[in-house]
Amino acid sequence: MSAGIVTDDATGKITFRLVQADPDFLYKLALILASPAPPSVPDRAIRRAPFLPGTGPYMISQVRPNKSFTLVRNPYFRQRSYAAQPTGYPSVIRYEKVDSQSAQESAVIDHWADLATLESGDDQSLAIQYPARVYFGPKVGTSFVSLNTRQPPFTNLKARQAVSYAIDRARIIQLYHVASGEFTPTCQMLPPDFPGYQGYCPYTTGAGDGGWHGPDMEKALRLVRESGTMNMPVTVWSFNDTPGKAAGSYLVGLLDDLGYRATLHAVSADQFYPGNAPRTDMQVSIGGGWGADFPAPSTFFGPTLSCQSVDEPGTQNSARFCDPHVDALARQAQAAQLTDPAAARRLWAKADHIVTDQAPYIPVYNAANAGFVSSRLGNYEESPVYGLLVDQMWVR
Are 283 and 235 in contact (CB under 8 A)? Predict the structure, then answer.
């Protein structure tokens, strides 16, 4: 590590020596998964003074464990770059822990709070009642059904494509009771607000305009018959909360209609994602998905679609998908990003379309975060990576 990262205290310069060019390097430096710190800092949580000094525009002034914490302006902060870290608008930011979403929404409606994030529930009625106060962020995540390509019947391409044709994406979105605009049906892994995205959906009825318009059960049944996989047993894994079980039950019914013998196995999030990674023994799963760490297609292809990821410990490749041609296109796209970004986007789009045709996953929808604001809050902003930019919002 010491040879790869060279520091100069006199000039404040840090030099990173890479083994090979990495077009995503600056994105990776900006991730908040890790932060540089002095050598004297212990590798454990610091629970008493002296604490590490903060460098941002705010500092913690009060903490009430499991209840709230309050931020006030950092008197030592000076704006070096508006693009990197602008000065915030609010003088005080207070986060209150409110367990239920309905209570959060009531707090905003009653002017006790200015912002609540909408994670689940009946966001639809809220957006109808307060259309100017429900905001949606960029759609940079994809929720999908995962088909294990190492377990029959989904070792068979036609069987996977059959489910892709048959699935009613609009029905699944409806089961989650979200506001119009929060979820958008999709057939591909790359989200629409993403480099390399070109709309493509072969698994639909209606116009061939790249979008999904409806399921094609007739074509799905034909593909199942051609695959020779009818009457095989299939276990569907889902989350055991109400919307999770509803989506899982829908998928079980669909697989039964296609001629399989399907059963539902609804489990807790800890069982679905042991160690923060999806189980690799799930035959079919619904409720999983992938969100971008930064706006580059490699964040989707590396963890969920590469041959290297198949047998890695803690892999996110729940479909166990491996296609050397897709890997080769991804490598070419990565190399082209540095010198020809337009060519790189075309290569990523080609790889994305091949994955769609191979159907290891059935992308169902792209999701956006949603926020509900008070009548006095303005300048709602959200980062596709860091989430809500509360410091850039203001109240009057």
Answer: yes
Domain spans, the chain: 54-135+371-395, 141-367
Q: Which of 289, 301, 360 is nearest to 330 (CA)?
A: 301
Which among 288, 261, 283, 259 is positioned nearest to 272, based on CA atoms? Answer: 288
- CATH number for the domain running over 54-135+371-395: 3.40.190.10
The amino acid at residue 146 is S
Q: Can you state the angle between helices 157-166 and 242-257, rounded to 10 degrees? A: 120
pLDDT in tens, 104-150: 999 999 999 999 988 755 566 787 889 899 998 888 899 999 999 99
pLDDT digits (tens, 9 = 90+) for 192-203: 988 999 999 999
Q: What does the alpha-carbon distance between residue 36 and residue 30 come to, in Å, rounded to a whole number?
A: 11
> H-type helices in 130-216, by residue range?
157-166, 169-175
**Is residue 50 reached through a cis peptide bond, with omega within 30 degrees of 0 on the bond before it?**
yes
> How, if at all, do strands 115-118 and 370-373 pair?
antiparallel
Measured distance CA(241)–CA(143) in Å, rounded: 17
**Which class in CATH covers the domain with range 141-367?**
alpha beta
Distance CA 105, CA 248 (A): 28
Distance CA 249, CA 238 (A): 9
CA distance 160 to 234: 12
Contact of 371 with 118, CB cutoff 8 Å = yes
